[in-house]
């Protein structure tokens, strides 16, 4: 079955550490996205990529980095520069073009310990 | 959508009743809208979509209504079931831009 897989489901980070969240899709979608979800707030866009080897900052990119070396993969690194990283992180993908919704992964819950 | 802080709007309905969840979208130029359902600890799932050239669209037990005059979107769920308990949020889109997501409404189905 085609889908989008995020791992790990739960992740704990110590102060000052970088951690990387994995996102893989086998839907042959061109575009991929990372969102952050905090309680009571809408999804906020961190980074997005419309094609391989290209990505753009979203609304809250500070403290995060991404790469898009393969069409199927869009890993997100939460760096030590992100001062409040505890959140639920969602990866999504879509067909590039007009009028297509996003397919979401099941999310990674990151907690700073 | 505008953030409502730490507390989501909540709608509680009796099992078997109809539910109506509302969303005020932000941009009058938006021309495509989606409703998503998100269960606790999971990713959002697509429920139904509607384009701006329509004012109503029906799916299985769900109906979306679009009022462009007042920038309002609603999701109606018929004969609400316990499995419908989740957070529901709308997303708006202008062609060529990324989706903008609302904060959501928590639906609780009472036995």
Structural summary, described in words:
The complex is a heterodimer of chains A (113) and B (111). Chain A is 0% helix and 49% strand. Chain A has strands at 4-7, 10-13, 19-25, 31-37, 44-51, 54-57, 64-66, 76-78, 87-94, 103-104, 108-112. In chain A, a hairpin with a 6-residue loop joins strand 4 and strand 5 (44-51). Chain A starts with a strand and ends with a strand. Chain B has 111 residues and is mostly beta strands. Helices cover 0% and strands 50% of the residues of chain B. Chain B has strands at 10-14, 19-24, 32-38, 45-51, 56-58, 62-67, 72-77, 86-93, 100-101, 105-110. In chain B, the strands form two sheets. In chain B, strands 1, 3, 4, 8, 9 and 10 form a six-stranded mixed beta sheet that branches. At the A-B interface, strand 10 of A face strand 3, strand 4, strand 8 and strand 9 of B.
Quickly describe the structure.
The complex is a heterodimer of chains A (113) and B (111). By secondary structure, chain A is mainly beta.
Notable characteristics:
heterodimer; A: 113 residues; mainly beta; 7-stranded mixed sheet; 4-stranded antiparallel sheet; 0% helix; globular; B: 111 residues; 6-stranded mixed sheet; disordered N terminus
Biggest pleated sheet of chain B:
6 strands, mixed
The chain-level structural class of chain A is mainly beta
Number of DSSP helices of chain B?
A: 0
Question: What is the 3D shape of chain B?
Answer: globular
Number of helices of chain A: 0
Order of helices and strands of chain A: EEEEEEEEEEE
Major sheet attributes of chain A:
7 strands, mixed
- pLDDT below 50 for ≥5 consecutive residues: which ranges of chain B? 1-5
The number of distinct β-strands of chain A equals 11
Q: Hey, roughly how much beta strand do the residues of chain B contain?
A: over 45%
Task: Give average pLDDT of chain B, whole number.
Answer: 91
Helix fraction of chain A, binned, reads under 10%
User: Span between N and C termini of chain A?
Assistant: 36 Å
Radius of gyration of chain A: 13 Å
């Amino acid at each position: 079955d085609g889908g989008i897989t995020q791992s790990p489901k739960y992740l704990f980070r110590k102060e000052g550490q970088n951690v990387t969240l994995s996102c893989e899709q086998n839907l042959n979608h061109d575009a991929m996205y990372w969102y952050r979800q905090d309680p009571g707030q809408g999804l906020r866009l961190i980074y997005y990529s419309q094609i391989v080897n290209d990505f753009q900052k979203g609304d809250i990119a500070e403290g995060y980095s991404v790469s898009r070396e393969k069409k199927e993969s869009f890993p997100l690194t939460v760096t030590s520069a992100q001062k409040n990283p505890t959140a639920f992180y969602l990866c999504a993908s879509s067909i590039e073009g007009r009028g297509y919704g996003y397919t979401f992964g099941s999310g990674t819950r990151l907690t700073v310990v | 959508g505008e953030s409502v802080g730490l507390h989501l709007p909540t709608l509680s309905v009796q099992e078997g009743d109809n539910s109506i969840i509302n969303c005020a979208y932000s941009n009058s130029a938006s021309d495509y809208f989606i409703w998503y359902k998100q269960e606790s600890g999971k990713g959002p799932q697509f429920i139904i979509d509607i384009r701006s050239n329509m004012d109503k669209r029906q799916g299985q037990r769900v109906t979306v209504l679009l009022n462009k005059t007042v920038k309002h979107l609603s999701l109606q769920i018929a004969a609400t079931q316990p499995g419908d308990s989740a957070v529901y949020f709308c997303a708006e889109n202008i062609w060529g831009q990324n989706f903008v997501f609302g904060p959501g409404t928590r639906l609780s189905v009472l036995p």
